[in-house]
Amino acid sequence: MNNLEVKLPGMTLSNPIIPASGCFGFGYEFSEYYDINILGSFVFKGTTLNSRYGNPNPRIAETYAGMLNSIGLQNPGVEEVINCELVKLKKVYHKKVIANIGGSTEKEYLESVKLISKCSQIGAIELNISCPNVKDGGIHFGLNKDIAASLVKAVKSVTNLPVYVKLSPNVTDIVEIAKAVESAGADAITLINTLIGMRIDIKTGKPVLANTYGGLSGPAIKPVALRMVHQVYRNVSIPIIGVGGIMNASDVIEMMYAGATAVQIGTANLIDPYACKSIIEDLPKLMKELKINKISDIIGGSHI
Amino acid sequence: MSEEYLIKSNQEIAYNVFQMTLIGDTSKIKNPGQFMNIKIDDNYENFLRRPISISSYKENEMTIIYKIFGTGTKKLSYKKSGDLIDILCPLGNGFTIKKNTRKSILIGGGVGVPPLLELAKQLKNNKMDFDVIIGFPSHRDVFLENEFKKFSESIVVCTIDGSYGEKGNVLEVIKNKQISFDYYYACGPEKMLHALVKEGYIGQLSFEERMGCGFGACMGCSHKTIQSYKRICKEGPVLESSEVYIDE
Lengths: 304, 248
Ligand SMILES: Cc1cc2nc3c(=O)[nH]c(=O)nc-3n(C[C@H](O)[C@H](O)[C@H](O)COP(=O)(O)OP(=O)(O)OC[C@H]3O[C@@H](n4cnc5c(N)ncnc54)[C@H](O)[C@@H]3O)c2cc1C
Ligand SMILES: Cc1cc2nc3c(=O)[nH]c(=O)nc-3n(C[C@H](O)[C@H](O)[C@H](O)COP(=O)(O)O)c2cc1C
Ligand code: FES
Fold this sequence. Notes:
Distance between the termini of chain B: 39 Å
Oligomer: heterodimer
Order of helices and strands of chain A: EEEEEHEHEHHEHEEEEEHEHEHH
Strand order of the largest sheet of chain B: 4-3-7-1-2-6-5
Order of helices and strands of chain B: EEEEEEHEEHEHEEHEHEEEE
Low-confidence stretches of chain B: none
Mean pLDDT of chain A: 95
Largest interface: A-B, 33 and 26 residues
Number of strands of chain B: 16
CATH superfamily of the largest domain in chain B: Nucleotide-binding domain of ferredoxin-NADP reductase (FNR) module
Bound molecules: flavin-adenine dinucleotide, flavin mononucleotide, FE2/S2 (inorganic) cluster
């Protein structure tokens, strides 16, 4: 028995490590570095119905223990993803992948979900209602519980795949939204997307990002992510995928104690392409040290 | 590909400009103009890696030249011979040597000059005819002049303030001296690169963008070209003049 195994709706993962959307391209970029089949699964770049270029440059800024991005969902559009990116991926990755889907209108979300659901490589949909970088898109659905719930309901009615809903931390009450998407039929919740922030260049007095604001990610946001996973775990019964600032095996254990069934790793991949590989290799050693037998035993362990 | 390299030397060669020689694997480097992404340290203050061009390389040894710009490059300048440093290398496409040129010219501005050194070496090895023109703000900023002389007799140095060599920016000096060429390779500030494209000359140019990863995963460095968008870290940093888009 593999003691790293965890179960998400529709997917059994050989370990809880999932590279996060936007930080792992379409996967094959990383197969130059290692065999990506060792991953539990991964989430591909946020995809919309039509291609998007995203926001103007600069769209990356550095912060202490993290970074800001204002990419704005640059992607080639769902058809191109299916016909091109997933074909390239198939050559190097033989497990199921999680499809991160964004959009500006309900119609757009539904069209994309319908198209991507026909693809046998997809194991689950991750509904991105939390991208802070797209005007009147994505996040608009994630800030209001009723709008979020009605989108989830509509999406569930057009796909047979499990639907994981990725929530924004930029809200006053995360529990309220989590409960609303759970009642609307979400199969799991991914927490958290980036926190909105900014930096100013003191030589010019102007914002560093051309878009002014961007999403903060990296170790700086880990305590916020842990807190939200912990709060939501108390209030919903569907599985939670914990994301935010995870850099190493200890962070994985911490996130799972807070209530995560699996974790996503974002920014860590950008500064070290081997980050997920190292974490997967380090986990068994750390578990032994901490006398954890099966990793699934610790999910929500901090709540007792 | 992320590997520890051993610092052989790290010395100031012009005002706030350092040359660092690194020992480690260079077997994957394909072209001059490729770059590396350097982890400054394990401290989370300089969280992202810093992209720096490979200036020259041979078996198990490569050299970079960087200017102190902010805190990351400042910390890099404190590194000592014998220190180990974590580097992703090589990244990007680099320059492709164009065959059948009558006479080409290497055009460098400031910290865009370093990658042209390896290119000069390779053009000379290919017995191709070329000139070099490099520009800096002032005399104290000038570097690599003597190194280029090993590969070309024809090198022009210019300074904006005229304190050394020809006065003016590289494009002004090219015009004033009526330097002729049928192809160019350029690296320097975006303003200089765009000016070259607008003149209608044909060649290859190396661009910069802020980078999240340096190896194609984040879309942070996406750069508009005439046909599409290219990731400067992956399909760049070198673009053909015919694809450069200028927004006015
Ligand atoms: C492909 C490429 C090759 C380069 N080659 C060289 C070289 O050979 N020699 C050299 O001196 N410089 C080179 N640069 C520029 C160099 O990357 C920046 O000067 C350096 O990142 C500044 O870091 P800092 O910590 O000193 O500055 P800070 O301002 O503290 O850096 C803050 C953030 O902005 C980024 N940043 C700042 N300026 C630039 C820039 N011009 N381009 C990209 N990112 C930037 C940093 O990487 C960091 O993430 C190159 C840049 C690119 C993209
Ligand atoms: C460059 C970049 C691009 C991102 N793109 C997306 C995206 O397309 N869709 C999405 O749901 N989240 C996106 N995210 C958010 C991450 O998936 C993740 O939720 C967030 O970065 C927090 O995790 P981390 O601290 O491990 O990076 C992006 C993050 C970064 C840094
Ligand atoms: S810097 Fe991440 S894709 Fe180029």
